Amino acid sequence: MSHIAMGGKVVTIFQGEFHVSDDPGAVINTLLGSCIAVCLHEPQRRIGGMNHFLLPEGQGGSTSPDVKQGAHAMELLINDMIKRGAMRSKLTAKVFGAGRITQRFSYVSEANIAFVRQFLRAENIPCLAESVGGESARRIRFEPVTGDARQMLVPRSDAKEDLRPVRPPPPAANPVELF
C-alpha cells in the first residue's frame, strides 16, 4: 500500500508499506526512526522500489507473515520488482534507518541492522551503501529509475553522538547525498 501525493510522482510510504516504480519522474519518500528502509534498484530495466519495516521477525513467536516484518517485506518488494520485469540477479540495495531514537527500544535497531545485512548476504544482493544506527531519525528520498538515494538527518536536541556512515559512499553513478 502506498500514498500518492498530488501530481502522482511523489509517493510516501509508511511502516509496513512498499512501493515499486519504473516511472522516470517518480520519487519515493519515507521517514525512519528505528525502522529500516531498503531501496532496491535494477539498473538494466531501470526499476526500483523501497520498503519500510519495523521488526526483523514477528513478536511472540508469531509465524504469520506481516508486512511490518523484515523477511516478508523484503520478499514482497523483490517479488513485485520481478513481476514488473526486474532481473533478480541484477538487484542492488541501499539501506537506511535503525536509529536508536530511545534507549528503551535500542535492541530493535540492532536486530534490524543484523537482519537486513544477513538477508542481503543470503540473497546475494550487493549493498552499495548503508546509513544505519546513530541516534537520529532520517528522511529518505529514493529515485527508483536511477537508484539515487538521499537522506536528511532529523536533528535531536538531546542526541549524544553524530551519525557516522558504516560504509563508504557508493560510486558516483548512484550517490547517497546528505542534505
UniProtKB/TrEMBL annotation:
<keyword id="KW-0378">Hydrolase</keyword>
<keyword id="KW-0145">Chemotaxis</keyword>
<dbReference type="GO" id="GO:0006935">
    <property type="term" value="P:chemotaxis"/>
</dbReference>
<dbReference type="InterPro" id="IPR011324">
    <property type="entry name" value="Cytotoxic_necrot_fac-like_cat"/>
</dbReference>
<dbReference type="GO" id="GO:0050568">
    <property type="term" value="F:protein-glutamine glutaminase activity"/>
</dbReference>
<dbReference type="InterPro" id="IPR005659">
    <property type="entry name" value="Chemorcpt_Glu_NH3ase_CheD"/>
</dbReference>
<comment type="function">
    <text>Probably deamidates glutamine residues to glutamate on methyl-accepting chemotaxis receptors (MCPs), playing an important role in chemotaxis.</text>
</comment>
<dbReference type="Pfam" id="PF03975">
    <property type="entry name" value="CheD"/>
</dbReference>
<protein>
    <recommendedName>
        <fullName>Probable chemoreceptor glutamine deamidase CheD</fullName>
        <ecNumber>3.5.1.44</ecNumber>
    </recommendedName>
</protein>
<feature type="region of interest" description="Disordered">
    <location>
        <begin position="155"/>
        <end position="179"/>
    </location>
</feature>
<comment type="similarity">
    <text>Belongs to the CheD family.</text>
</comment>
<dbReference type="InterPro" id="IPR038592">
    <property type="entry name" value="CheD-like_sf"/>
</dbReference>
